[in-house]
Amino acid sequence: MVRPLHSGGSPARLSAPPPAPPTTLYRIHHPESSVKEARRLVAEWIDHHVVRQARGQTPGCDC
Fold first, then answer.
1. Of 24, 28, 36, 62, which has fewest CB within 10 angstroms of its CB?
2. Residue 42 belongs to what domain range?
3. How many CB atoms lie within 10 A of CB 39?
4. Cα–Cα distance between 3 and 13 in angstroms, integer?
5. Under 8 Å between Cβ of 30 and 45
6. Which residues, including other chains, have CB under 8 Å from residue 15's CB and lie 6 or more apart?
7. What is the pLDDT of residue 13?
């Protein structure tokens, strides 16, 4: 199916909702945590896996 062009000349696209922030995703998986705790643990996870590229479990999360 051909979609109409926007005034800028590009094909119309369906927009997806923005991704959920990591804190929200953490709290979905761990609903018992507070927002403050979720932010701290997400920061630790990013530091552990992204910054230091460690391979083991992240402290505070056994999953």
1. 62
2. 22-51
3. 16
4. 8
5. no
6. none
7. 63
- Residue 4: CA atoms inside 13 Å, Cβ hemisphere, count? 2
Give a yes or no: residue 42 inside a domain: yes
Whether 38 is covered by a domain: the verdict is: yes
* Under 8 Å between Cβ of 27 and 61: no
Query: pTM for this structure?
Result: 0.54
In-domain check, residue 40: yes
- DSSP secondary structure string for all residues of 38-56: HHHHHHHHHIIIIIS---S
pLDDT at position 54 is 85
